[in-house]
């Protein structure tokens, strides 16, 4: 029997000429692997279903729970004013397991549709006020113990946004959805509902958000407060009511853009002032990391406000750079940061230079719909300038062209900001000076100065020789001087032609 079985198993099959026992072994092995795979799938599904959706809660942003048994007093004016140093534990309830960590990142994208623009007229609530809800089941939120802004209750923000209605969406990105909200005092706010989808260290979150929350500058979007109730994490900003720069540059605005040259320079100058405050007015300095046209919000007076600090990093004065994971938007990221991960304020300067080129030309930083030589904005603009076709880079939707002097100044600033050598890029404070100063040193101006100095020198020499002739009666020196000046004249003309 065993000999018969051995003979049968040793027979070759039609499957690549393999012996029967080999084919049987392969089938058994495949069956075992399949069973193990199915078991692993079942185990993974069971584990996921047993875990809560968000299992980590910050110890710094504590959860606010609403006590249904408490109601507001009948007289709204009798609401007590909070102490300067509030005690959050009176209004919060801790889980038995304690609070752990949660990542809260402020959004990366701010794409706004033309018919729903916004994120301006900020809420006037200071850090010492107490706000009351509209309905009896809502308690007044505590003042933030981080030292800035407010704790907003979930109920407040639900009422303000009409329960996060789709028609109130004004922005959407990888880190959350931004809603327009109307508070009880009829002030507008922008509410970002955060997607807590990758943990971030609690200490890093506290340092970065606290630094940004304390920032107060007319060219930076103000962070008013936050909501931390249950699993919900939201940030509340002032509302800017005229869309963003990307809409006005690349949206459907008709044959001519409302952005005149003066408006564009006002927008870019405001952006530069906001960045200068982040880089030079704070300690530690704040590196934005995501400067781009969609993150520059515009108000009704065409003033710009830098928004979206979700990728911001802090850089202390004792460090020249930090090494971090490369984040940002394609086309705006500095080359040295993209290749090495080494980040400092010069990375923002590069992005600002791209933004300046974008606002001058009306083109995207990278546009694959254009001819091969025009895909990259930096390369194309450098080619145009080197060919002495500066006016050819202007946005064709601009009704009135700027003066040649103003255009050359803006282009020179942009080219200096995108210098491949990061150390040669100017600081943002110097950028403001270059954009504002009237006597900007152009090549033509330097040539005119040299010619004026030379003419003045010649006149002085002629005056001296005239005096010599009068005193001595000898004109040989004067004649030799005239010959010398005449010999210099052709050379001067050659220099002028160059």
TrEMBL record:
Compositionally biased intervals (Polar residues): 473-488
PROSITE patterns recorded: PROTEIN_KINASE_ATP, PROTEIN_KINASE_DOM, PROTEIN_KINASE_ST
Transmembrane segments: 20-43
Gly residues: compositionally biased ranges: 118-127
Record flagged with keyword Membrane: yes
Membrane topology: Single-pass membrane protein
UniProt main location, coarse: membrane
Location of this chain's protein in the cell: Membrane
Keyword Signal among record annotations: no
Name of one Pfam family that matches: Pkinase
Keyword vocabulary terms for this entry: ATP-binding, Kinase, Membrane, Nucleotide-binding, Phosphoprotein, Serine/threonine-protein kinase, Transferase, Transmembrane, Transmembrane helix
Record-listed ATP binding positions: 192
InterPro entries: Kinase-like_dom_sf (IPR011009), Prot_kinase_dom (IPR000719), Protein_kinase_ATP_BS (IPR017441), RLK_Ser/Thr-Kinase (IPR052232), Ser/Thr_kinase_AS (IPR008271)
Protein origin, superkingdom: Eukaryota
Annotated stretches, region: Disordered: 67-98, 113-138, 471-498
SMART domains: S_TKc
Enzyme Commission number(s) from the entry: 2.7.11.1
GO molecular function: ATP binding; protein serine/threonine kinase activity
Recorded family membership: Belongs to the protein kinase superfamily.
Protein name per UniProt: non-specific serine/threonine protein kinase
Gene that specifies this protein: LOC102579705
């Amino acid at each position: 029997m065993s000999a018969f079985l051995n003979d049968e198993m040793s027979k070759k099959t039609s499957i690549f000429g393999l012996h029967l026992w080999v084919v049987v072994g392969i089938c058994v092995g495949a069956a075992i692997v399949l069973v193990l795979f199915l078991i692993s799938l079942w185990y993974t599904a069971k584990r996921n279903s047993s875990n809560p959706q968000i299992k980590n809660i910050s110890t710094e942003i504590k959860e606010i729970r609403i006590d249904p048994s408490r109601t507001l007093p009948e007289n709204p004016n009798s609401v007590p004013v909070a102490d300067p140093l509030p005690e959050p534990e009176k209004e919060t309830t801790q889980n038995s397991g304690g609070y752990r960590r949660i990542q809260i990142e402020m959004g990366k994208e701010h794409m706004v549709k033309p018919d729903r623009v916004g994120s301006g007229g900020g809420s006037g609530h200071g850090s010492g006020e107490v706000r009351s809800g509209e309905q009896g089941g809502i308690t007044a939120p505590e003042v933030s113990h981080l030292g800035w802004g407010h704790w907003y209750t979930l109920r407040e923000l639900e009422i303000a946004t009409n329960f996060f209605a789709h028609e109130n969406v004004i922005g959407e990105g990888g880190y959350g959805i931004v809603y327009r909200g109307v508070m009880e005092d009829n002030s507008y706010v922008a509410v970002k509902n955060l997607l807590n989808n990758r943990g971030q260290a609690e200490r890093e979150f506290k340092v970065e958000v606290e630094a940004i929350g304390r920032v107060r500058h007319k060219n930076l979007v103000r962070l008013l407060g936050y909501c931390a109730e249950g699993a919900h994490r939201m940030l509340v900003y002032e509302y800017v009511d005229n869309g963003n720069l990307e809409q006005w540059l690349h949206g459907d605005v008709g044959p001519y853009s409302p952005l005149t040259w003066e408006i564009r320079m006002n927008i870019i100058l405001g952006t530069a002032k906001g960045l200068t405050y982040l880089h030079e007015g704070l300690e530690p300095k704040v590196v934005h990391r995501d400067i781009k046209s969609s993150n520059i919000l515009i108000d009704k007076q065409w003033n710009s406000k830098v928004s979206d600090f979700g990728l911001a990093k802090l850089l202390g004065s004792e460090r020249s750079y930090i090494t971090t994971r490369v984040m940002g938007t394609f086309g705006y990221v500095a080359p040295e940061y993209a290749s090495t991960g080494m980040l400092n304020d010069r990375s923002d300067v590069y992005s600002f230079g791209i933004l300046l080129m974008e606002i001058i030309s009306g083109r995207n930083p990278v546009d694959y719909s254009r001819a091969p030589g025009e895909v990259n904005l930096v390369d194309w603009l450098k080619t145009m300038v080197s060919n002495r076709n500066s006016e050819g880079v202007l946005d064709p939707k601009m009704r009135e062209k700027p003066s040649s002097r103003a255009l050359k100044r803006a282009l020179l600033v942009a080219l200096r900001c995108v210098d491949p050598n990061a150390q040669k890029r100017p600081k943002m404070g110097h950028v403001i000076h270059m954009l504002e100063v009237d006597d900007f040193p152009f090549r033509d101006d330097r040539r005119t100065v040299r010619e004026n100095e030379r003419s003045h020198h010649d006149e002085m020499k002629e005056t001296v020789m005239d005096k010599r002739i009068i005193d001595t009666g000898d004109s040989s020196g004067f004649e030799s001087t005239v010959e010398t000046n005449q010999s210099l004249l052709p050379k001067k003309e050659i220099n002028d032609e160059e």
